[in-house]
Specification:
Strand content: 5-15%
CATH class of the largest domain: Alpha Beta
Distance between the termini: 55 Å
Mean pLDDT: 92
Strand order of the largest sheet: 2-3-4-1-5
Low-confidence stretches: none
Structural class: alpha/beta
Number of strands: 7
CATH architecture of the largest domain: 3-Layer(aba) Sandwich
Number of helices: 17
Length: 409
């Protein structure tokens, strides 16, 4: 059978882009309290004063980035009514940046043209910061707000979160030339807790927590999007409540709920149906769940990838569940082989705890009495080892580890 002709006719979707991550809504439902706190924290800026440093935290898909986009747009719109006020916003996604140095280079390059970019290696950190301070002194703006999205990717290398918030206080950038503020956005609750004391003092002037959505909130969000995304009448009455209930129970993520609703519609469309039914939502749910787990695995930083690799090698040798000391031994070999920083065993125990919180690992505590003491045993949790391997094999930094796997330790 040959290819069928492409057709613009679509009995299901009116505008499916409304359900995608890239869509920016005109307003953010179910986040009135957080938006009020956010705007209040930024009021000094519109008055010409130094900005407060703000830290937003909450899991993925709960509105942190959308709230930031809406508020930054409103701030830059409203500043037009004030003389001698120009706020520049520098928004950087740190997802693929695993050190303060890489973030600093990225920020410097935001101020440079395409033919004058700083390479990602070759300069000492102090020089990179000097470049940044010079750009901030020269920039034609009264305020510069740095939005560091998914800043948890840098792990425990948090120097950038000390240097930027204190750029004015330390005299690196005179406040009468440019007032500097930082907005850190983290998908991990524990990242904030693990910041060094000096960073907490500098960065967390204001902290705003975005909790997971409940099923009723997700229902309102989905209903709003569905009105523009789907052809009138194609959704059966129980579709939106069911998708909201699944996402509310699983994660409280609007992103997951929207993906679930889209996938259900896509299944109906692929079968040339004219209605999206409950069975399509139930069929889509496990597919979306696996996709989310895969995305989470891909997004963790290099040190967590190395920790997962160590567990994978132990699993291959049937040595799971394993103590953290055994995992660390394999991790250390792997880190050295790819010339990555070798973190302390305590840091890797923290990584194991974070992976457990994500549901990737199961942990059992064993107690062998006064002489043997207690210890923890780790093994894979709600993820298949073969999925872990598929993800890790696609990580460029880890490619050499699969050329010759670690079998002796």
């Amino acid at each position: 059978m040959g290819l069928e002709p492409f057709s613009a006719e679509d009995p299901i979707f009116e505008d499916e882009d409304v359900l995608r991550d890239s869509h920016k809504p005109e307003d953010l439902l179910e986040r009135d309290r957080e938006l009020e706190e956010y705007q209040s924290a930024l009021k000094p800026v519109i008055k010409g004063a130094r900005p407060r440093n703000i830290f937003l935290y909450g899991q993925t898909g709960v509105g942190k980035t959308v709230a930031t986009q809406l508020i930054m747009d409103r701030l830059q719109e409203d500043q037009e009514g004030y003389d001698n006020l120009y706020v520049r916003v520098v928004h950087v996604v740190c997802k693929n940046l695993n050190s303060s140095y890489q973030v600093a280079v990225k920020l410097v390059n935001e101020f440079r043209g395409p033919n004058n970019k700083v390479p990602t290696t070759g300069y000492p950190p102090d020089t990179i910061y000097e470049f940044l301070w010079e750009h901030l002194k020269d920039v034609d703006a009264t305020h510069v707000l740095f939005v560091l999205d998914e800043v948890d990717a840098i792990g425990d290398d948090d120097d950038i979160l000390y240097e930027l918030p204190r750029a004015n206080d330390n005299g690196n950038v005179p406040a009468d030339e440019t007032k500097v503020g930082v907005i850190g956005i983290s998908n991990k609750f524990t990242f904030r807790d693990n910041l060094s004391a000096r960073v907490k003092d500098s960065l967390c002037d204001e902290e705003i927590h975005f909790p997971p959505y409940d099923a009723n909130q997700l229902r309102n969000i989905l209903q709003q999007r569905a009105e523009n995304a789907f052809v009138d009448g194609v959704l059966e009455d129980d579709i939106v409540p069911l998708a909201a209930a699944f996402a509310g129970q699983e994660s409280g993520s609007a992103r997951q709920a929207l993906k679930l609703l889209f996938k259900a519609g896509d299944i109906a469309r692929s079968r040339d149906l004219e209605k999206v039914k409950e069975e399509h939502v139930r069929e889509a749910e496990p597919k979306i769940k696996e996709s989310q787990v895969r995305n989470e695995l891909e997004s963790v930083p290099t040190q967590s990838h190395l920790t997962l690799y160590a567990l994978l090698m132990l699993e291959r040798q049937e040595d799971l569940p394993a103590k953290s000391s055994d995992i660390y031994e394999v991790y250390e070999i792997a880190a050295k082989r790819i010339d990555a920083d070798v973190k302390t065993d305590r840091t890797i125990r923290d990584r194991l705890s974070q992976l457990k919180l994500k549901g990737f690992l199961d942990v059992d505590e064993h107690n062998e009495g006064p002489k043997g003491g207690s210890y923890y045993l780790y093994e894979f949790g709600d993820i298949r080892p073969d999925m872990v391997e598929e993800v890790l094999r696609d990580v460029d930094r880890l490619e050499d580890l699969f050329q010759k796997e670690i079998t002796s330790y």
